Amino acid sequence: MKVVVADYEFPNLNPDKEALKDLAGLELVDAKCTNEDELIAACADTDGLLNQYNYITPRVIDSMKKCKVISTYGIGVDKINVEAATKKGIYVCNSPEYNEYEVCDHTIMLILALSRQMVQLDRAIHNGVYGVMKIDNRLYRPYGQTVGFVGFGRIAKQIAEKLKMFGMKSICYDPFQSAEQCAAAGAEKMELDDVMKQADFVSINVSLTDKTRHMIGAHEIGLMKPTAYIVNCGRGAIIDESAMVKALQEKRIYGAALDTFEVEPIKPGHPLLALDNVITTPHSAWNTQESMYSMQYVAARQVALVLQGQKPVHCVNYDAVQEVLKG
Predict the structure, then answer these.
(1) If residue 31 lies in a helix (H) or strand (E), which one and from where to where?
(2) Which of 106, 283, 301, 314 is an active site residue?
(3) Where is the D-isomer specific 2-hydroxyacid dehydrogenase catalytic domain (predicted)?
């Protein structure tokens, strides 16, 4: 069995090797691909593919002669053309539970850092400016403030639960959750416009799809309180970045804390990096030693399951592929 690792930024592939060790005659290829042509050359005869940052396009998928499964390191499958893979009978898998606590904790850290203007105060001291009254924004205690979740899945529910310790209220927009389900997890379900109007912190917690791309645009941002913040540990393209930059530059919202961006890595000189009301981290919300091991192991385990003729645990197109294979 041949399994290609298209790319990765981990220290090693030991967790992958552990997950794949029972595959007979395993050939694990560290391909280090950086573009479509390199992917096509590396994956022509692979049985399975592991991928982190490359875009697995229809052209790449069409070139694969016998691939049965593509698994991504992480939750989002937006870099894989799922439709093309499905048509070819290829399972698309992910590792959704690798960050059991990390993204939740990172989001809360950013909310508190914004609330206390932690980064701005640190920058002021480094620039020789001392005193809490020297920063632009007034500080408001987290107690009694409202966090509005755009998407209310597993991670958002974890955040809402932990925010109770700070006396913060949760509201949410999620068309896939009932009002009862949201209430059971501690949030009041609302329409998106109402969440944007009422939230002191807007937390982005939806997956990136064609329908969710730019779902937070100029209209939605325009509904926000002038003292409200945006926090994004989801996907950068959920937000219309240009509209957000304009609102931040014009001080129509208080600020933002962003772990993800429309184009990654964010380029030096990007307007967001010139703003003193923005906190940025480099898509690192997921990253701990524990989550890194889990991400690799779980993604590779899905490949092993498929190649051993078993049902993968985490597959976004299992039923659709089953129909293709039957027909």
Answers:
(1) none
(2) 283
(3) 16-317
Domain count along the chain? 2
One domain for residues 68 and 140: no
How far, in Å, CA of 200 to CA of 104, rounded? 18
What tens digit of pLDDT does each residue of 13-35 get? 999 999 999 999 999 999 999 99
Over residues 192-237, the pLDDT tens digits come to 999 999 999 999 999 999 999 999 999 999 999 999 999 999 999 9
Residues 292, 149: Cα–Cα separation, whole Å: 26
Active-site annotation holds for 235: yes
Cα angle value 302/236/220 (rounded, 5°): 125
CATH number at residue 261: 3.40.50.720
Contact 173, 192 (CB under 8 A): yes
Rg of the chain over Cα atoms, rounded to whole angstroms, equals: 21
Q: How far is it, in rounded angstroms, from Cα 203 to Cα 194?
A: 14
Is 264 noted as a catalytic residue in this protein?
yes
Judgement on whether residues 167 and 270 belong to the same structural domain of the protein = yes
For 318, residues 6+ apart whose C-beta sits below 8 A from its C-beta are: 91, 311, 312
Give tens-digit pLDDT for 91-100.
999 998 888 8
Catalytic-role residue among 102, 106, 235, 314: 235
Tokens of 186: 């501690």
Please give the C-alpha separations between residue 72 and each of 49, 215, 292, 304, in angstroms, as whole numbers. 8, 24, 13, 13
> Which of the following is catalytic: 27, 83, 191, 264?
264
